[in-house]
């Protein structure tokens, strides 16, 4: 399969490469980055996660792609879409992102997610796109709102892969109906 590439003015979302392991592990082992996402990850766990993304991309034609600064070719995280596997987004178009702390606050996630949603809605006929996060993940919730996603309190849920007493278990769900999307 040819490498996927989706460009924005500052960013590139692309298929995962072997050389992405070290920089993505640095992101996934940063306690601040992972504070609302789960425990820091070992190199082997990140390698398995990248392989999972490669498998999802091979099966569906999309995944949480490697997110790279176009000007420097530096990997700064991931962004994209998978078929959700938990709670109210199971089987639905779930958008997600993870970004290096040094790249926070620069609008990269909103820029990338907007382009990914545009791409997805052109290539798929889903009636809505979705995103989930922990209740306290203010940064991701702000991105969801900037994208025009609507908080669905009726779809709040405890993540089934987390212990009931895990502070990250309570999750919120956001939806963006196709009819409400304004392409960039």
Automatic annotation (TrEMBL):
Q: Which residues form the N-acetyltransferase domain?
A: 11-179
Superkingdom, taxonomy of origin: Bacteria
Pfam families reported in the protein's UniProt record? Acetyltransf_3
Q: Which residues cross the membrane?
A: none
GO molecular function terms noted in the UniProt entry: acyltransferase activity, transferring groups other than amino-acyl groups
Give the UniProt keywords, A-Z: Transferase
Q: Which PANTHER family match?
A: GNAT FAMILY, PUTATIVE (AFU_ORTHOLOGUE AFUA_3G00765)-RELATED-RELATED, N-ACETYLTRANSFERASE DOMAIN-CONTAINING PROTEIN
- Put simply, this protein is called GNAT family N-acetyltransferase
């Amino acid at each position: 399969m040819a490498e996927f590439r989706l460009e924005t003015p500052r960013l590139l979302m692309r298929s995962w490469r072997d050389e992405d392991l070290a920089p993505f592990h640095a992101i996934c082992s940063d306690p601040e980055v992972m504070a609302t996402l789960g425990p820091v990850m070992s190199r082997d766990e990140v390698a398995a996660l990248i392989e999972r993304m490669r498998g999802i991309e091979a099966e569906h034609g999309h995944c949480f792609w490697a997110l790279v600064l176009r000007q420097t070719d530096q990997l700064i995280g991931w962004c994209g879409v998978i078929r959700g596997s938990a709670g109210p987004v199971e089987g639905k178009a779930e958008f997600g992102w993870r970004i290096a702390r040094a790249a926070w606050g620069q609008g990269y996630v909103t820029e990338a997610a907007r382009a990914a949603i545009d791409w997805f809605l052109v290539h798929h006929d889903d009636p809505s796109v979705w995103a989930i996060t922990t209740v306290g993940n203010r940064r991701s919730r702000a991105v969801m709102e900037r994208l025009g996603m609507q908080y669905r309190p009726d779809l709040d849920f405890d993540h089934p892969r987390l212990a009931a007493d895990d502070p990250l278990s309570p999750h919120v769900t956001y939806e963006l109906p196709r009819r409400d999307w304004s392409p960039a």
